[in-house]
Amino acid sequence: MKVYEDFKVYGPYLRKDKRKHVCLVKYEKGKKIKKTVSYPKFLMEQHLNRYLLEDETVDHINGNFEDDRIENLQILTRSENANKASVYVEVPIVSCIWCRTEFKPSRAQYEKRGVTRAGPFCSRSCSGKYGKSVQETGITLDREKVEVLHYSYNNNYKKEYVNFYNKESLCEPEMQ
Question: Is 128 helix (H, G, I), strand (E, B) or coil?
């Protein structure tokens, strides 16, 4: 059995998101059956001469969706592909600006804190003491910015730090 042997293949066509797909058409019992398949999946199924299983997906090894060479394609389970595409956050240890205790800031402290707010503080107690001091003396401390690093795992499961907003590599992958 050959994969998609009854279908007439149209394409590949370029979608708005710069990925490719093929349109497959066949006539069965007088009815027109249309099917759209991603181009990398179509290529891999042709190469293997079998349909992919429900839990299998095709992944671009180098991350470039325009590079559809068969050497650049690999089959992953859906969970492996999701893990590969995940971006993780690494939050550094910081010092409380009031008592100088080192702590790991919460998500709210590094994501939602505005530029004009003081901190980071290790506790509500330190935040309150700082607020009372500002009310009594009017002296404020400079705000310390919490720099978080975003990373994902590359094909060798090494950490690869990326600028989450620009998706640019910040440094070489490192082993941990």
Answer: helix
In terms of domains, do 104 and 156 share one? yes
Sign of the torsion formed by the C-alpha atoms of 93, 95, 99 and 101: positive
As beta bridge partners, residue 38 has: 21
Query: Which pLDDT does position 112 carry in this prediction?
Result: 65
At 111, the amino acid letter reads E
The kind and range of the H/E element at 9 are strand 8-14
- pTM, rounded to two decimals: 0.59
Identify the residue whose tokens are 């409380």. Answer: 96
Q: What domain range is 71 assigned to?
A: 8-85
Q: Which amino acid is at 117?
A: R
Query: For residue 12, which of 66, 90, 82, 92 has the smallest C-alpha distance?
Result: 66
**Residues in the chain where the model's pLDDT stays below 50:** 163-176
CATH code of the domain in which 65 resides: 3.90.75.20
Question: Please, is 157 exposed, middle or buried when counting C-beta atoms within 10 Å of its C-beta (0-12, 13-18, 19+)?
Answer: exposed
Task: Using DSSP, state whether 102 is helix, strand or coil.
Answer: strand
46: tokens are: 């042709």
Q: Which amino acid is at 29?
A: K
